[in-house]
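Write out this protein's structure.
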Amino acid sequence: EATGSCAGIENYSRWLTGRAPGEPPPTFFEYIPDNALLFVDESHVTVGQISAMYRGDYRRKSTLAEYGFRLPSCIDNRPLKFDEWNAMRPQTVFVSATPGPWEMEQTGGVFTEQVIRPTGLIDPPVEIRPVSGTTRNQVDDVIDEVKAVAAQGYRSLVTTLTKRMAEDLTEYMHEQGVRVRYMHSDVDTLERIEILRDLRLGSFDVLIGINLLREGLDIPECGLVAILDADKEGFLRSETSLIQTIGRAARNVDGRVILYADRMTGSMERAIAETNRRREKQEAYNLEHGITPESVKRDIKEIMASPYESREMDRLTRPGVAEQAKPFIGSNFQAALRDLEGRMREAAANLEFETAARLRDEIKRMKLMD
C-alpha cells in the first residue's frame, strides 16, 4: 500500500537521479569496488552485444519520443554506450574459445590458453565429405551416420543454413525412421529447454539446428556433429562459428565431426588447423602424464527427480496429498511463485536450460499444492 510502480518510469529516471542530459545512467559499475574483477564469458559474442544494446535502445526510444509516445528524457534511461562501459569496467578477464578482434587488439595479441581439460578429453577429429556424389548426397550420408551413432547409444547434432532446410530435413529424417527434432529461433525459449532435456534423456536421437547449436550447449551424450554445406562461406560458416560448433562434440570421448563440403574454404582451413593444433597439444599432455580421456559426466538427476519424469505425479495428486501439503499461505504463496517464475525465465535467457527445467517443475509442483 505504501509503494507503487510506474509503467513509464523511463520517462522520469533522469530527473529522479539528477543526471544531466546525455550522461550515463546509474549502473552496477558505480557500486562495485575499484579492485573488483569482471569476467566476460563468450566475449566474442558479448562484446559486440554490449555495443549493439545502446544503438538498439536508442533507435526504439527516439522513434517513440518523436511521435509523442515517450518524453525525450526517456532516451537517457538506457544501456551504457560501449565507450562508457569500457571506461567504467574494472580489471577484466575475457573468456572465449574464439576471441574476437577487439579482445585481441586490447591484449596486443597476448592471451592465456587453457586447452587442457581435467577429464583429458581432446578436441574431436574432423572429417570432410562431399556435399553431392554420383550415387548419394550429404543428406543420405548424414542419415546413415546418425543411425550408426544412435545404435552406439549417442546423440547427434546437425546444423543447416536455413530454418526451412532444418524443418524439411527433420521431416525427411522422420520419414526414414530417425527419431529427430529441430530447434531454431522461432522455437519458444522454454520449449528449447524441453527439447534439450529430451535429447539428453534419449527421447530422440538427432537435433537439427542453425545457429543455436553453438555457445553454451553442453551435451556429453553427443557423439556426432554434422555441419551441412560447410563450404558456404558466411556468418554461419565463419571460422568462429565452425570452431564453436565443432566444440559441441568435445564433451564425449568418442565425439567426432563431419563437414560436408565440395571445396575447402579459408574458414574451414583455419578452423580445422586450430582444432588439430589443440588436439596435438592435448594428446601430448595426456601421453606425458599417462591420462586416459573420459567423457564428461553430467548428471541428469535433477531432471529425472522431477515429479513428471519419475511418475511422482501420481503420488502428488492422490487424494489427500494436495490438501495436506500447503507450505505457503495466501500472498506468501503467490510471492514465492512469482520469484520462481522470474528465476526460471532468467535461467532460460542465460541458456541454463537444466536449471530452468528444474524450476519449471518446482512451479508445477507448487501449483498442484495450491
